[in-house]
Amino acid sequence: MLTYELIKKDDATGARAGILHTPHGDFETPLFMPVGTQASVKAVSPDELRDLGASIILGNTYHLFLRPGMELMREAGGLHKFMRWDRGILTDSGGFQVFSLGALRKITEEGVEFRSHIDGSKKFLSPEISVAMQTALGSDIVMAFDECVPYPADHSYAENSLHRTQRWAERCKKAMTRDDQSLFGIVQGGMYKDLRSESVMRLNEMELPGYAVGGLSVGEPKEMMYEVLEYTTEMMPSDKPRYLMGVGTPDCLVEGVARGIDMFDCVFPTRVARNGMAMTHTGRLVMKNSDFTHDFCVLEEGCGCYACRNGFTRSYIRHLVRAGEIFGLRLLSLHNLWFLVNFMKDMRAAITEGRFTEFRKNFWDKYEYGKKR
Amino acid sequence: MLTYELIKKDDATGARAGILHTPHGDFETPLFMPVGTQASVKAVSPDELRDLGASIILGNTYHLFLRPGMELMREAGGLHKFMRWDRGILTDSGGFQVFSLGALRKITEEGVEFRSHIDGSKKFLSPEISVAMQTALGSDIVMAFDECVPYPADHSYAENSLHRTQRWAERCKKAMTRDDQSLFGIVQGGMYKDLRSESVMRLNEMELPGYAVGGLSVGEPKEMMYEVLEYTTEMMPSDKPRYLMGVGTPDCLVEGVARGIDMFDCVFPTRVARNGMAMTHTGRLVMKNSDFTHDFCVLEEGCGCYACRNGFTRSYIRHLVRAGEIFGLRLLSLHNLWFLVNFMKDMRAAITEGRFTEFRKNFWDKYEYGKKR
Fold it and tell me: Of A130, B159, B304, B329, which is least packed with CB atoms within 10 Å of its CB?
């Protein structure tokens, strides 16, 4: 079972530093979780993940349910063993992915029937099947099977959806069988305060070991996301970890932490790496840009990532990206993951040392959102 | 300057164990050189190359000449520094690639005019330009700019080509400027013993630090390749290293070593890795094969490669390959390179311990050529 220990609460904001105690180790929060969709964080090895400081990674139930499937994951002894990762794993429920299939899925109270994106075959996921799959995966944190309300959605749609999500969360709880796994409930309710409030209250009654905020970063303006996040986290219990799903740009991480979020995940760092982008404290670098042709500096001065500490230059990485060399996207993936994981550590230090507001101000002074050199 | 030290000559065959003394280290021969065409051994880091025991890697002059170009390689301080590799580098001359362009190139006595495969622009390579580029690259071993005779070719074609290759080798020697670089001549002459003999004799007169056998493994039957190799190496000086270009399957390595070859290179191990194949002492494994679905053994029992020593199973690697995950081809590349580099080390030990004939027999007893499980 997972527990959350609050170490320090910031005076001026909702930011907090804590420790997640899990069956695979104790991890300092706030933290960023790299995404390993198909039992691999794209292009990166477990050793490299450990080296860059990753503590919990995310696996996708939808993808692993389709391939290699529940039977094989059982036979393999779970995801930790299958992919050789001995720290924490959180698995999502597959809900977000099947709802994203649009016309290819049909929702009933029982669950969701859908067509596999791999071979078009008919499949079915329900709260019970999602939990069974996550049980086979053996993740430390099991996410409840929910419906992620799209944006925009009217109040009655969001309310009906929320109620189903709640009923499904209760079915998920009943389906849990392993005491080394912890179920997180997901707060939904669209952009409506009354619904978010109802969701928090009803999940809270379930006394789950942790709670996520879902249904954000789905196309709404960032200011709206921050507003919903602010009133939602204020209502959430302070003795449980809070996870903001699918968010991972530096600006959102700072503002999420400021609103009391402890855990984040996003494909962003590895996806932009594969598109030739490097993340830095001042913005993004588009490595194909000719500015870097003769640039023999590392990606970011003072960075401790594999690429920077070994002296791989911007000029070299630009060459690799242009030539389509896999090693280029590997170096950028390692850099970007290091950047985000350690950005969280820096924020945590700022919180424990009582200077988070200063950290946040410094960040915004330097950071150019979406800057593309 | 590079020198070759003969340590042990096999009694029954042409096999020999030696040491190559280079400006970037002393390397035991026979050895296999991984290919880093575009300043990167595909998907593999310099650290990983060191870990798997690689001593010399190969860089391609043609590709690096087109991108990033001679100017940038000069500015970067050479290929070692650019790609962060501190052991040996051999660069080919670009000759093989430009001749392979077929209709896109025009050969004169001065050199070869060709169209870039990247943007179609007109380019020119000559013995002097190839050496200038390899000088900028700073490779330990510079290959002479030659014409690789195709198979089949008639005697007069092979003879004319050989004579031009010889004149070009002499121009290459004159163009050399750095005393930390060593020029290797390339024996040509098609499948004709008299021409191979003439080529060896005339290159020998140039007193170069090493010699390669070119124009083999170009489509001729293997038995013919072994025959040409046998009489060619018998004529070559024994105090210089001998390099068989572009050959890297286990069977050819054993037979090449048996005929006195010291150095090999080939894209084979990394290319088949990207196609989902694993090399083993008994043949190749096609990882997509459903035989491996429930196979929780490592690729090859007793293998010390990154993938095998860390317990990544055939089942997991099969999953990665089917899912198109980069980490799958990384694991297979590391395994295949480890396999070949260490296969050479095992052969060397067999030579120094006087049991090479036994090694060769054992190999052929177990090995199924092209076996695809």
Answer: B304
The percent of chain A in helix, strand and coil, each rounded to the nearest 5, is 45, 20, 40
Predicted confidence (pLDDT) at residue A371 exceeds the cutoff of 60: no
Virtual torsion, Cα B109, B115, B121, B125, nearest 10 deg: -30
End-to-end CA distance of chain B: 46
What sign for the dihedral angle of Cα B65, B70, B75, B79? positive
| Confidence category of residue A348, pLDDT binned at 50, 70, 90 | very high
Instruction: Tell me the CB-side half-sphere exposure of residue A34, using CA atoms within 13 A.
Output: 33
- Structural contact between residues B21 and B3, judged by C-beta atoms closer than 8 angstroms: yes
Whole-structure pTM value: 0.97
Short-list A96, A101, A57, CA closest to A79:
A57
SS3 A302: coil
Question: Exposed/middle/buried for A366, CB within 10 Å: 0-12, 13-18, 19+?
Answer: exposed
State the catalytic residues of A: 92, 265
Cβ pair A316:B76 closer than 8 A: yes
Looking at CA atoms only, how far is residue A360 from chain B in angstroms?
36
For the record, the structure tokens of B208 come out as 């170069």
CB contact under 8 Å between A75 and B294, yes or no, is yes
Helix B326-352 vs helix B314-322: crossing angle, to nearest 10: 130
Residue with tokens 């450990």: A50
Place of tokens 């760092």: A269
User: How far is the C-alpha of B181 from the C-alpha of B23, rounded, in Å?
Assistant: 8
Contacts of B259 (CB under 8 A, 6+ apart): B13, B14, B226, B229, B230, B233
**Does A84 touch chain B if contact means CB atoms closer than 8 Å?**
yes
pLDDT (tens digit per residue) in A34-74: 999 999 999 999 999 999 999 999 999 999 999 999 999 99
Based on its alpha-carbon atoms, the radius of gyration of chain B, rounded to whole angstroms, reads 20
